[in-house]
Structures
1.
Amino acid sequence: MLTSKFAGVVAALALALTACGSGGGGTSTGSSAAPDAGATIEIGSLYEPQNLDNTAGGGQGVTEAFNGNVYEGLFRLTDAGKVEDLLAESHEVSDDGLTYTFRIRQGVTFHSGKALTAADVKNSIERVVAEDSQSARKSNLEVIKSVEAPDDRTVVVKLSDRSISLTYNLSYVWIVNTAAKDLATGEDGTGPYRLEAWKRGSTLSLEPFPGYWGAKPANGGVVFHYFTEATALNNALLTGAVDIVTSQQSPDALSQFTGNPDYKISDGHSTTKLLLAFNDRKAPFDKPEVRRAVAAAIDDAKLLESVWAGHGSLIGSMVPPTDPWYEDLTSLDAYDVEAARKQLAEAGYAGGFRFTLDTPNYDPHPTAATFIKGELAKVGITVDINVITADEWYTKVYKNRDFAATLQEHVNDRDVVWYGDPDFYWGYDDKQVTGWIEQAERARTAEEQTELLKKANRRIAEEAASDWLYLYPQIVVASSKLSGYPVNGLNSQFYAYGIKKG
Amino acid sequence: MRGRFTFLAGCVLVGLILVVAAVSLVWLPYDPADTSGGRLAPPGGAHLLGTDKLGRDLLTQLMVGARIALTVGIGSVLVGGLLGVAGGLIAGFATRWLDDALSAVLDILIAFPTLLLAMLVVAAREASLGSAILAIGLAMSGVVARLTRILVKRVLAQDYITAARTSGTSWPRVVAEHVLPNIWPTLLVNLSLQLGLAVLAEASLSYLGLGPPPPNASWGRLLQEAQATVLTSPTGAIAPGVLLVVLVVGVNLVADGFRDLADPTRRRTR
């Protein structure tokens, strides 16, 4: 989903943002020949894990390789963005919404042979919320007050406040054997595959786990081949060294595969949004009129066409179509240079102004910055482009909030909630929005939550809290012999057990 | 007269780029920020060399790029030349421990990779044309200083220096009348070679995103931006590459030709 260069920022964002996952659509349909259940699937990726522990900064690579494949959670987030029971057989919620009782599936064993018990679940949740945990989920699970395991099959989670997203957030909590040692280079999960070998800098191979409690994988194992460079990755696909590439970063590489019957290109939904994020605390961007004027002065459609050549889609706010509270708000942010000029004049900036745009040094940010500079010059605004590295962005913009405006891609689904936090880097502070987002998390039903988040989302769009430039496409290219692979990428997850070859 | 031929060939190539840069000051086919050309339009028609991803005219970008390449090349030679010759003169006159110390400093400066030095300068300042010139100039000054030092020492060992000194000529006059006239041909050849290297160094910096920030159309940046589209639209990568080669080869030919012309011993042996 992201280029190799952006792994740094993704990691940086993941540290603090609620991370991840969503989708829409389904899995691809396959070819007619009889699949070979013993075939090994060769997967090409740009995201090698830093280590194998997702509570110790393993990065998006370990999520891609291990989520759902090697480790399982109490719940699974499907490629279509739905939350399903996995290691939890069922669960009950108390009337006040503060006590969740989970029934743990029986007959599940870890790869080491030990049976899964409620104590392992308790321990796994506690690992993620622990002091030294670097999990991207940590802040979402802060609402957990205590985890108890009254018997081997029951886990009781007590919350300090209602949290309707708890099951969704638990889909990212790996259930790990309490007795397991050295999770940074090894594993002990309950998934359909176990780790066969990890050759750093090259491959990570998974073999089917014979003692798996559920359906057997549709293949005889998978090997992730890691590349540092997209061209080399595509060449590997062309020569048959890999069967599938988890995500394409440039539309121009696709021409090698279009019209070739040996390959199939899937255009799925990503949740990655390119943002022109204003510092809403500081003049001139503390005025909604100025922000709206800037948004109206930029032709998002043309930028999307420049970067993605017909792929991807426009969005009018932070919510991608795969989030339950999506609403088409692109009309609020429509391209209209005249309206932009008028609004600037009303805000007292008839003569324009000058600002510095902090631009991460990897694609597509410099391209977008160049384009924005040209567009805003037409309404009298001068943009000084300041190119910075991902690390500098994290320190200067994210931590010190020392910026006027910045470009950044936000990879997570369900991340509109960050507009409810006035301390977030963009500093959007609206009492109503904060209130709605807080209430939404405490909602009794999903409908109530959706309603509130829609309200908040509409409000931030009307105020142009940021300018949402476009939504990235999620493009998967695979050999046409392959079927059953996930097409939405779900912000780094890549379920491999359904992939068939032949 | 091989020396003269290479010199002329070099002048033609460098002159070509100089003319392009000069023309870009008064006339450009399009506004550099004009994005109306459509994504990756092929060469021909309204856009002689086609357009880039954003729809900007490639020829316009290349012409602006010529200006940047020459500015950085000449600017860093000025910085490197001034610092290097000044440092080299001091080191050339120094004796004993001061000479040893200066030599050590120069050796360290030369051992430092240009790109690493440039990154440090960019980190301390910001990514800009000025930073690029300063960084490349600094890296260059070590090489120039070491060469100057050796040349100065060689001249100072001559009998006529001793004669000049005993007849009461002051050190500044010795430098002006005896040292500089004897070392400048060699220095000039070296500085022109350094100019070619500086142009390449700037392209590398821009390629890495450490050069002048976008939308400055440095050739290195154009190469970097064209990398992803090299299969579908090769002109975007080929054109800046060719111009880089033309300028660097041209500068080197001028330097070679100049050396052959300026050095009487070389002329005689041919």
2.
Amino acid sequence: MRLNFITFVFLVISDSGVIAALLFLYSRYHIIHSRMVYILAGCIILMLVLRAFLFFMTNWIYYRKGINKIKGVVSDFKKGKFAQSYREVKVVNDLDEILRELVVAGRHLDSIMTAQKKEIDNFIELYNSIIFSISSYFMVLDDEDRVLFANDGFYKKFQFQSDEVYGKKIEDIFYFVNARLKGGITQVRQTGKTVVLEKTHLLTLNKISIIADIKISNIVVKDANQIIIIIDDVTKKLRNDYQISLMSQISESIQKDDEIDRVLFTILTGVTSGTGLGFNRAMLFLVEEGMLVGKMAVGPDSFEEAIQIWTAASTTSGDTSFVEIKSAEMKAGVNLLNRVLAARFPVKADNIFTRALNGRENIHVADSWNDERVGGEVRDLMDVKEFIVTPLVVVNKGIGIIVADNKFNNAPIMKENIELLSIFASQAAMSIESYSNLDTVRSEMQKLSERQEAIVESEKLAAVGRIAAHMAHEIRNPLVTMGGYARRIMQMPKEKSKVSKKIDTSAEIILKECERLEKTLSNVMDFSRPAKFIKEFNNINEVIRDTVSLLKNLFQEKKVEVGMELSEDIPLVKSDFNQMKQVMLNLLQNSLDATPAGGAIRVRSRSEADLIEITISDTGSGIGEEDPNVVFEPFYSTKVTGVGLGLAIVKKIIKDHNGTIRASNREGGGAEFTIRLPVPG
Amino acid sequence: MAKLLIVEDEKHQRELYAMEFEDAGYEVDQASNGKEAVELVKANKYDLVIMDIRMPEMDGIEALGKILSRDKKIPIIIYTAYSNYKSNFMTWTADAYVTKSSNLDEIKNKVGEILAARA
């Protein structure tokens, strides 16, 4: 620039010198024509002006160029592009110098940034690998438990829009079900330590439910405690595990001699449990004598009930077995169960249930209201838009159906669910079939063992009979002699005197005692004789009152209190009054013998369904045997004076009345006898 | 006068019956076991035999058979302290089965009944 200016000044001076020399030569020697001088002078002036113009023009362009270059570099800087393509900048003027400085600074910045970018890239890579490797859903909460962030997976899984989650409180996203989740967050805030909640049932407000392992951690960002929640969906894994364990539970339940209801319940829990197939409701129908009969149902009656069940399921500890949830589920859904139990469809009728059964195919009803195949009765029973019917098939024979739906969360029934249910149903069908086979075997076994018991009992009684008969014989003979002679003494003609009167009285006493013993013998022999009794409709309360008043003196003598709690509205029982009295007498005497002075005996009667129950309890020494029922064995006695037939007689009489008697020890000491007699229907 | 044979191993009992029946107007012979009874029946004619079951040497049931094989028409009453032999068919061949009692009215009535039917 400076150089240009000097060149310019030098040229102006040299041009002016040439002009001055020309003017001098002209004025002194007139060597050229004067017009030429003017022309020459004009040219020189024009050249000067041109030269000046050119000079300013070039300088202006130079300047613009430099400024633009600088502007470009600065704008690159602004964009974060620090490295420039300029290698060397030829410094011609100030602008060049500024540009060079900028390029140098840019290089520095670039090297710094490249180094940092590498680190950031590493971090992002690490971060991504963490996020993707856990394939989890996660969310970050601020210190007021509001959602700061949730990942895409979270939105997709729970079908939320970002504005439905961002800034919301945790309870606005999940149902209060997640007391466990809230508790976990609180714990993390307090201790700062990471908490893992295993197998937690999560239910969102839009009714998407999963079972998840939840990891809650604390991070401190800008002095604020943020919470990271990582949700790991384990529903599928658990379902697989659960199906295996469920099948073993079912077979266990069968082996354990459970009621069929329990087996069916266990099966349906598999259909409804979150870890099972996860349906909201499940019903089971079995074919019986040409009818499809409702047998069992599991599922809540309302959405509120559903929440309660899920809460119970979610708050129980880690290895929640469905047995624990059962009680809650059992309590819920009573209406559903009752409705299903009352439902009967002829197998030959045409509705969606019989179609699935007879066609042995799964039927997925997408719109129950408008599907003609469903049938009015089934529609009313189900009262839901979408459901699935799966037949229970054993060796090409339909034995029943399972019906399942999602009445409460309205989740659509997917193909996958249908397949799972169908696999499950085939296993369940086999379980039910094997149960009913087993049940038949079992009831046959039961009959056999009852017969065997009866034989053993009758053998025992026969032995008792033989011994008793022999004893009776041995005792009766001398009695007959004694009594006979006493009678003879009484009948002998005597003089009327005080002595002869005394003789008669003494003989009479002997005779009376003999007769009493003979009577006792007859009673014992009655026991071994086949029972012949008169069955009439008797009020058991009367029997009890009669017997108690008979023994009143004995009770008073022994200072034992007798209490009666008799239900006045018990039905009459067809029974032999005297035999029942014998039962009460033997039992009360037995209790009285076992109860020390100051003790109490209580007699209660009540009716229950189709039987009446009589309980006699005492505060005595109880029964010192592992099985208290041995007291009913003939010749069992702990008394010093007693043959041990009293309770055996009681049992025999009760048996002859088609009743049962059971002995047990009371918790607070003492024995309790419970008699149950059938009431004629 | 009807003649009875009382078969009973217990002496006092046998004598009691004898006295009672003699008082009631019968002629009475006594045997202390089945064997004696069979011998007496061979030698004498009785209108009725009262037979105990349990006796030494020969019991009443065996004697019953032996007597009946000789004379099918002679009425025999089993009179025993066993109350459970009633259902034993061996005793069914007898004309009656009475359980012993200190009260002899039952056996007396039975004897009268059978003899009246025979007369």
